[in-house]
Amino acid sequence: MIEAEYVAPSNLGELFKSIEGRAERVKFVAGCTNVLPDLRAQNPAPMLLVDLTGIEELRRIEENNGVISIGSLATMTELAASEIIRTHGPILASAARALGNPLTRNRATIGGNIADASPAADTAPPLLALEATIHTEGASHAKREIPVEEFFIGPNQTVLNQGELITRITFPIPKDPSASSHIKFGLRNAMAISVVSVAVVLEMQGNLCHRARIALGSVAPKPIRAYLTEKELEGRKITEEVLESCAEVVKKEISPITDIRASAQYREHVTGVLLKRALWQAAREGENSTNGNI
Amino acid sequence: METCTISLKVNGRTYKLQVPPGETLLRTLRDRLGLTGTKEGCGSGECGACMVILDGKAINSCLVLAPDCDGAEILTVEGLAPDEEELHPLQESFINHGAVQCGFCTPGMLMSAKSFLDKNPRPSREEIKTALSGNLCRCSGYKKIVDAVEAVSTNSSFHLSQGESNIGHSFVRRDAIEHVRGISKFGADISRPGMVFGKILRSDYAHARIKHIDTSAAQNLEGVLAVVTGQDVQQGYFGVDIKDRLVFATDKVRYRGDAVAAVAAVTEEIVKKALRLIKVDYEPLPAVFDAVEASEPRAPIIHENLQDYEISFDTQRKGNVCTIANVKLGDLDKGFADSDVVLEDTFSTQIQHQASIEGHAALAEVDARGRIKVWSTTQKPFAMRRYLSQSLRIPISSIRVEATKIGGGFGGKLELIAEPYAVVLARKCRRPVKIVYTRDEEFLATTPRHKTLFWVKSGIKKDGTLLARHVKLVYDTGAYSGNGPTTVTLSCQLAAGVYRIPNLFIEGYCVYTNKMNCGSMRGPSGPQTTFAIESHTDNLARKIGMDPLDFRLKNLLEKGEKTGVGQTLVDVDYKKVVNAAADAIGWRNIKKQENVGKGMACIFWLSGGWATSATVKVNEDGTVSLVTGAVDMGTGYLYTSVPQIVAEELGLNAEDINLVQGDTDRTTYDHGIGGSRGTFTIGRVAQMAASKVREELCKEAAERLGVFPGDLATRDGWIFLKADPEKMVSFAEISYDRHIKKGGPIFASIQFLPEMDEIDPKRVKGLSFTAFKGNTLGCHAAIVKVNPDTGHVEIKRYVAAHDIGRAINPMAAEGQIEGGVSMGIGFALSENLLIGDKGEVLNPNFSDYKLLTSLDVPETEPVIVEVPAAYGPFGAKGLGEPTMAPPAAVIGNAIFDATGIRMRHTPMTPESVFGQISKRLRK
């Protein structure tokens, strides 16, 4: 058990009031799927646990004027099942379906997954590829809108200030006709932490890719966009040759590490394999997405 | 500390509770509401044992804060059945399909299944597997669990085979109903009035001298009741074969995890705080983590007094090598000289952990006279009592050990683990002390499977005849010998047990390193030896262009022949087993496809002996009680095959057999469960006791009926004249009269030490034991597909044939095979306990020690072969262990068939397979 005080505000107003002057001790909790194991391992100083799960306004998934808005408390199960997400951000639904296991997915929230900022965070590559924006609120209601590619700084590090909360995540509906694909490569078919994951959103004209957004997980200190690879692809037809050159270029912009799950070398190789497959799938089958061991 | 007031509706009842903010729902359910059906397997949401339904959603209760559940509705396994009488259809189905083995994951599985079927009543089989993929099961291989859920979803009824005989039908296990209702008491579920909590301080160094331990700050912490170090207790060296270990390290620590001190306090939080306050002054010593390096002359010495340790067998010991075992036969040089082809291979294997979903737990209580009672998750209550006596210098008569329900053992619960610490703390503070290992501690400081290195060289004739073999095998036993010498002995026997090899030399070495002590995991040495020998066997066959099936059929030993150690094989038919596996997979008709391959491998095994005893007594109503000192570690033999054997011998129904087990005060001696001896040895002694009871019943009946005992038969609790079945008398009538009127009750107690088979003493040197009876063979075959881009291996089909002598309970036998194969595939492909360069465990958790999930394990096709053993009850042989030995070799051979690459190290991860593929491409 961890030593803590506990508050469970039912709206944002109450929340900021309850943490006034104590922001430095605040730990926001919702699904707890990362927080509890972490806290147990660390023996932290007594803290103020702020339970967000009662704040209904942070739960909604909605579409307004071509923008999808996801409350930070939306769970993986909800994302995977949401018609809105399946239609407009299927790669995010795919990533949500691939996170952990059904029990974790019932609790884990998108806000938590992003705030935890693991280089392997499952929802990060789709959000990067969808060019999402992270909306936050901090003490005295200071609001910020942070492009997701600026949000992560390093392993488990973000630009969030102490006491600043992710309220929602938005992304514009990709322009029609667009195609997307997401692949997670882990070492098991469930409960896997990704070795590499890839998400791509392509705006296509026939076989010509005219805009590409490519994002990768587990191959850098943080989830990243592959800008050079995007440039390599844009304006070209998707052929095997182009895919090969993308797979070469992408190696220049990743910096994988060797850890107990895989070596840097293998991650680099698999990044190329998955990238080719994701681009090929997106180009050929539009919104087809898969995950797991392939 | 501030508390929160919450209101929970659990299983329909509302509770108002005060809880600290940091408390998890799991703790609230278990500790405050006493609902111990919800289990803790890892404490970090990676196993699903603590799964409950919270407001309609399946969640891990270890990852939910209790205050967050204020106002919520919760359903736990205890609330699943509609009432005391009736079960939920899922509970019924789990029982009938044999989906319950140890029962520890069962509550979580049931709740996952229930929450899933509520939302999706007609799922596909794949959807069921996905739904259960957050619930780890270590026993079953998931197949029967998926079957059980599928049957409920399709509303299909299930009829167990019923026959005239108790033998050969799938009697459901008696204890399954307790498991599905969540009322079984596993180690952590036991509590005693006044109980406090204990924990162990472990070494931070792999090898260091202890200069000083300062416990004063811990002693002074409020709530601390006892702090104990090696200075405070009388200790004696203990060990299975070599007594080289102490409960508390005193002079030096030998691995990161060695126990230095232990603390008891009123709460677990205070215990943890107190441990942090103990200051240990270490002088670090050079450490060695590799068995080959440790064998070299200049390696740091881990046990300076190795020569002085008491040892139970004759072997050579030098440096860090604590056992050298040899098997020698024929003329090796001549054998190689006469060979047409000589081939050498090396192989290595990793540390695999038993990873029972239930960790170790022990509770010790001292009574007013100083007598100690220990509740333990042990597989060996009597040995535990002896070990406690030896290690803490307490008379055996002052100790009572009672085994709790065991949530999976797999050989991980054979040795002293948490027990001695609970005992010393309880003696010091005179309060009951409970120690429950965390998942982390399980991985750091228990007894996993040995890491090994094999070098194998064989010579064959062009026609495939094996002429000579030289094997060197090295077992890394860690900081203490533990079961290492015995495992090396077994490895030597296995390496020489399958094929006819006239010229043979096997050298086995057991070596200390500064790691955790490795022990006996299900089929100790089986997976390692089989991986090496059977991969090498395929290489030999390929070298001369022979089908690996034909190569095996040509060289397999036959009944009446001698194994390498000189044991004569009786009651075996190796070819029958190999052909059964080949036929089941359609070996000769598999079409060659790109990156798809087939593989097979054999395992020779024995059925464990060792001393046991049993009492069979007839109660006043004619039912029978079986009293045994053995325990059931989850496989179910004590709830299925043994009562079936007793019932069959007596002429009764298995349902009428009551069971008393695993208590050193209430039962007579048993060696402990392991070595695939459950059905074979305990079944046998129970059968002998039952036979004696039957004799007496018949004598009594003969007197009453005025006939000869030999003319009588028994069935369903009646004794009748064979020639005139109308003439009969019931067990109940006889037994009641014997109890009340004359002669006293009818019972029989039998002691039994199964004979060991003879081996040839000229052939062996340094083995810790000779050979058990009940020889058996298993042969597995599989088809796999390799992805050349990533190295990922997919198992398309898996067939496992085992000679089990006689299938007393076919469903239980299938469960052993499916579960064993699943564990073997884990060994082959994913499980690997990793040690860092300072001796630290790098993955002491279920997220990176990768047990396979319901989405990873293929649906094994079990094939039961019956070549009865004269020595076994109704012909039965042991089965539990050999089931997990072949998969690594099978898959390795299939990868070779698919791609032409030979995998030499386990686990064969995608990265390692890809590494070999790309190496070949570069050539």
Structural class of chain B: alpha+beta
Mean pLDDT of chain B: 96
How much helix is in the residues of chain A?
Answer: 25-40%
The CATH class of the largest domain in chain A, by name, is: Alpha Beta
- Main beta sheet of chain A: strand number and arrangement? 5 strands, antiparallel
Count of individual helical segments of chain A: 12
- Terminal CA distance of chain B: 67 Å
Quote the CATH topology of the largest domain in chain A.
Uridine Diphospho-n-acetylenolpyruvylglucosamine Reductase, domain 3
> What's the number of extended β-strand segments of chain B?
32
The share of residues in extended strands of chain A comes to 25-35%
Number of strands of chain A: 15
Task: Label the CATH architecture of the largest domain in chain A.
Answer: 2-Layer Sandwich
Q: Topology of this structure?
A:
The complex is a heterodimer of chains A (294) and B (923).
Chain A lengths: L3 E4 L4 H8 L6 E4 L5 H8 L4 E5 L9 E4 L2 E5 L4 H6 L1 H6 L1 H9 L3 H4 L4 H7 L7 H6 L3 E5 L5 E5 H4 E3 L2 E2 L6 E8 L5 E8 L10 E10 L2 E10 L6 E2 L1 H7 L2 E2 L2 H14 L10 H22 L9
Chain B lengths: L3 E7 L2 E7 L5 H8 L18 E4 L2 E4 L12 E3 L13 H8 L9 H14 L5 H7 L11 H11 L22 H6 L14 E7 L5 E7 L1 H5 L3 E6 L22 E2 L5 E7 L2 H10 L1 E6 L6 H5 L25 E9 L2 H7 L2 E9 L11 E6 L5 E5 L4 H12 L6 E5 L15 H11 L3 E4 L2 H7 L5 E10 L5 E13 L5 H12 L7 E10 L13 H18 L4 H8 L18 H12 L10 E10 L6 E7 L5 E5 L12 H10 L6 E5 L16 H28 L6 E4 L2 E4 L2 E7 H10 L6 E6 L11 E2 L10 E11 L6 E11 L6 H20 L31 E5 L21 H13 L10 H13 L1
Parallel strand pairs in B: 1-5, 6-17, 15-16, 19-20, 23-24, 31-32
Antiparallel strand pairs in B: 1-2, 3-4, 3-5, 6-10, 7-9, 7-11, 8-10, 12-20, 12-29, 13-18, 14-15, 14-17, 18-19, 21-30, 22-23, 22-28, 25-26, 26-27, 30-31
Helix pairs in contact in B: 2-5, 14-15, 15-16, 15-22, 18-19, 21-22
